[in-house]
Amino acid sequence: MEIRGVEPRLGEDLKRRQEKMRRILLEKGGDAALFTGNANLIYAMGRLFDGFYYLPAEGDAIAFVRRGGPLCGEDILSITRPEMIPQMLGDLGRPLPKRLALEEDLPHKDYLRLAALFAHIEAFPSAIGPMARTIKTPYELDAMRRDGKRQAEVYRKLPSLYKEGMTELDFAIAVDASFRHAGHLGMQRAAGLRTEPTMGAVLSG
What is the pTM of this model? Predict the structure, then answer.
């Protein structure tokens, strides 16, 4: 899958990530996997979107996008509901899976809905995304080092942000602003469907 608008280093790294996920899929005996959780979408595509990432054991991956901004490239298709996926795969001449891996941390109703997309298949829960992320690529390690330096710079400034008489809320706002000015988005990605906790809270006493 080629994603337009992605810097070359990240584009190459996304290919490595896809191959790691595919190796794990094959080890689990699956012939396709379907991802929709934010953490897995970012890992596979390098960006967030509302939709699904379909990874076959053979052939190119496909992104089925409901909405999510200017996401364009080869094998990126627009859908309005996941029930359209089997028909679109058929229209592309892609074989339908017999064993489909789904994210094990999906809400139960979402898991059942996706498991019912394809007739006469076996769906099984798997942690393919988290397993792939346990071993970092050189690109990821470099990103972690750069982010660590940014965070260290912010933490060094935190003592000077506190002023006598500040409430916990005032100090929390100052801390939040410092991290945001350094590039933090204000939320953190986590496993699970659309799970994004905030940076944290300031508590005393």
Answer: 0.83
